[in-house]
């Protein structure tokens, strides 16, 4: 018998010993980062970058497969006891010797996870991780001339790239409200001192917003450069329009780091993903009834919000709790009680 | 049902006002749920796992009497924690708000022969929705006993003290049979229903796994202590069964708890539903340890009002709920465990015989409670 087969047999036997739990339920108590466990990470340090940004040093579990500079990682953090998932760019180089990774987070107003990570995260805390992913990366053959166009926390994936890959000719145009708001400012100036980077630093509070159409004044050869842009929607929309107008849309790579904002309204179009049915629902009818009327096989129970027999994954959009008026937005792992929830704008249920 | 309706003095408006006040208590707890509560359940789960592992480790040497005693005691407590404070409450969805897939009503499985999925249906949907409604809530005597004067007497009930004792000893099997609705489904016509057969198979699989673990694998691992470990796991299961049966009997069977007629819940409002839960449940008084070991089902009244609030918050809810009982002049049925167990058992004995005198026709509840 091969050793793999032997191990799988031993594991099967262990499952008989621990049923109804799994052996991993016990192993997780002592070794949450071991090989074979769900991917997690432990926060080892939190370094303040600016007033509202911090870099989190994470020791990933054994199952971490590494990342490519520019990629992001989804992290699951318990905020006030509730697990919330968000995506953040990896800001550490792939070559980091101790195997740790860092993400750099800017606290956004009312941002539950970002404020928690920047202001309250403590070393020692175990968080959930996903493997790194994302297409916002340098190609295998590095381009001769590169432009990084960033604003605010849009600098984070680019910092990951700057730290990882030395390029012969790289210009960065970065905007932030004030000098003290520039994340990684001293790292950037170190790179400038080493002649590894040409930096155009704009402080929008005093200099005004960057006019993308006037980019030529700042970077005369911008059109020759392979460009990576990351920042607020306004900047990216303007950049895409500008590059397209010059017929070089292929040279621009963008990363939108803010998800589309859910507009919670009264009622909306309800999609049942698995059955492919779509119906219009008002803001007062429980989604359970909506589904049943549309002929979707909905699990149900007490129909009054106590038994949780009807919980269904909410894949997108928002629903309103008919008892409390509370809005729940779709996120990974969010289940809603369809018997007491109504559509608050368009939404999709996994049924 | 007692001859006098103990809620007769309440007007429809008062009942709805009571409902609003209870909703406010619920909202307050939900708004304040957070990190501390999450830490609580994780701590309990971790403690239970460590206790179970340690106890089973000690039982590997159960040949030595002190090891047997300590191991059996530890395993009994671990099994009680698994079923009561952890399993029952997670399966109620009390911790779903944490969005942790490992501690969620849809993924949890417990140390019990009834699969979580089936138990959730019969317990959360049927029992909690139709609490104490004769003919709808099978928890009222589990279909083998008569626990209220209004339930029809049958000669079978003569043996009910014996049935109840056997049920107490093998309670988890009783629950599994009950979740399968065996009494109803063993009829010739229903026996071959594919849905029932699938559920029966699932129970069979669960029983096989549980039995294999407790009565084969762990004793085998104990080597020379095979027989003593077998006796230890049997004892731990027996203790867990007797304990949970006692706690659960205290929830709805003691004297003073009301039952309801089927037609009385037609068109029931939120306020009336709350009132039925208040009158249909009984608490157990005692220390923090007592509340913990009952899985906070000692706060049965609060649990029935708010089945999905985290169990660690029932104690503070109880203070407010009790004040409402006083305000609306309702009887809050509670007492220490021995007293409540005795009260429930006395009822089981008393009602094994037919009603002594012809029952005075009680004013039917629906007249008082339901706006016609």
From TrEMBL, chain A:
CDD domains: fer2, FNR_iron_sulfur_binding_2. The keyword Glycosyltransferase does not apply. Keywords: 2Fe-2S, FAD, Flavoprotein, Iron, Iron-sulfur, Metal-binding, Oxidoreductase. PROSITE patterns: FAD_FR (PS51384). Residues 36-139 form the FAD-binding FR-type domain. InterPro entries: 2Fe-2S_ferredoxin-like_sf, 2Fe-2S_ferredoxin-type, Beta-grasp_dom_sf, Cbr1-like_FAD-bd_dom, FAD-bd_FR_type, FNR_nucleotide-bd, MRET, Riboflavin_synthase-like_b-brl. GO terms for molecular function: 2 iron, 2 sulfur cluster binding; metal ion binding; oxidoreductase activity. Its cofactor is FAD. This is Ferredoxin-NADP reductase. It comes from Lentzea jiangxiensis. The lineage of its organism: Bacteria, Bacillati, Actinomycetota, Actinomycetes, Pseudonocardiales.
UniProtKB/TrEMBL annotation, chain B:
The keyword Secreted does not apply. Keywords: Coiled coil. One of its GO terms (molecular function) is oxidoreductase activity, acting on paired donors, with oxidation of a pair of donors resulting in the reduction of molecular oxygen to two molecules of water. The keyword tRNA processing does not apply. GO terms for cellular component: membrane. It comes from the Bacteria. Residues 8-35 form a coiled coil. Residues 67-334 form the Fatty acid desaturase domain. GO terms for biological process: lipid biosynthetic process. This is Linoleoyl-CoA desaturase.
